[in-house]
Design a protein that fits this description.
- By secondary structure, this protein is mainly alpha-helical.
- Helix 5 runs antiparallel to helix 6 and helix 9 packs across helix 11.
- It has one domain.
- It is built from 15 helices and no strands.
- Helices cover about 70% and strands about 0% of the residues.
- The protein is globular and about 65 Å long.
- The longest helix has 28 residues.
Length: about 350
């Protein structure tokens, strides 16, 4: 809407004039709604570790940890190398150290930071399981304090104000470092060991969770618009705030509270879930290529978000699913798990 506005707006038009339009608020609504997605993924990942730890075992075995990391890293490295080659053909090259850093931090693609982040949690999981078995309340509280403390550093940068003594630390906590999201993984881990009690607690207050998350969705929209106005910098790239953390937590609690609810298209959703890692690895490159093709050949479509966004969603979901289906029906089938997890 802003970066490519010169392709569909008159040359003298300020692209930020689109702020406040119906398309703008629809896109902001989608962005705000989806804030819970990474917390939910990490919560489920922590829950899996608890599920994979036998009841009489002090902590999760390193064989489980190693298997999970291998299942993530091999497809990640394959598609990262494919993207590196693709970027190299476009003239976007790095030094050997730059390539190594990009692979270690997930900077090959903006969405790939999640793999190094998750691998860090898996490497920490034997210690976290040990702590969750004995002092889960303190572990949960400590993880929450760490995550909220890091989120506190976002506010001066977002609002373009000085952070005083904290200023040297404002820009040194990238999102691929585990403390940034530690609460969600730990919460899933603790939930896995106390699921029955947690579901009973969630069910008791289920309408409060549902009402709270709807309220926080609206308040989160207002918060972000207020920060943009205060910062005076036009559009801001979204970062998770305190309200977003509360919203993500209420979404998870509401999901647990309404666990008996029949989800529409449950079979289709379950099938997508089984292929989610392959979709994750491919969706962002496919989305970028699709958007660039539209930018080059059909720039007028950029002005119609009600058409553009469904096109991007269908392409970023459909192309990965089609490629996975083709591989699964070809001689490459034996390599499917290494390509898509």
């Amino acid at each position: 809407m802003f970066a490519w506005s010169h392709r569909y707006l008159p040359a003298a038009t300020d692209p930020t004039a689109q702020m406040g339009s119906l398309s703008y608020y629809v896109l902001r609504g989608v962005e705000q709604f989806a804030v819970f997605s990474i917390p939910a993924f990490l919560f489920v990942s922590g829950y899996f570790i608890a599920f994979a730890t036998p009841r009489r075992q002090a902590t999760v075995s390193w064989s489980i940890v190693g298997a999970r990391i291998r299942s993530l890293l091999i497809p990640y490295l394959i598609w990262s190398l494919v993207l590196i080659v693709f970027l190299g053909l476009q003239g976007r090259r790095l030094s050997p150290a730059g390539y190594a850093a990009a692979l270690l931090t997930g900077r090959v693609n903006p969405a790939y930071y999640y793999v190094p982040l998750l691998c860090q949690f898996y490497l920490l999981s034997p210690l976290l399981v040990f702590l969750a078995r004995r002092w889960w309340q303190w572990l949960l509280l400590g993880a929450l304090v760490i995550q909220l403390s890091i989120q506190l550093l976002y506010y001066p940068a977002l609002l373009h104000v000085s952070a005083g003594a904290l200023q040297p630390y404002v820009d040194v906590v990238p999102k691929w470092i585990f403390p940034v999201r530690i609460f969600w993984f730990v919460a899933g881990l603790v939930a896995g060991f106390h699921l029955a009690a947690l579901k009973q607690f969630a069910a008791r207050w289920k309408w409060w969770w549902l009402g709270g998350l709807l309220l926080l969705f609206v308040v989160g929209m207002v918060e972000w618009e207020s920060m943009q106005t205060y910062a005076g910098q036009g559009w801001l790239a979204h970062r998770e705030t305190f309200l977003d953390t509360a919203y993500g937590g209420l979404v998870i609690l509401a999901f647990l509270a309404f666990s008996d609810f029949n989800v529409p298209f449950a079979g289709f959703v379950s099938e997508l879930g089984a292929k989610s890692f392959g979709i994750y690895l491919l969706h962002s490159p496919v989305m970028e290529v699709t958007a660039r093709l539209i930018y080059r050949f059909v720039p007028g479509l950029l002005a119609h978000q009600e058409i553009l966004q469904p096109v991007l969603v269908v392409a970023s979901l459909g192309v990965p699913l089609l490629l996975m289906a083709l591989v699964n029906r070809s001689p490459l089938r034996r390599y499917y798990r290494w390509l898509f997890g």
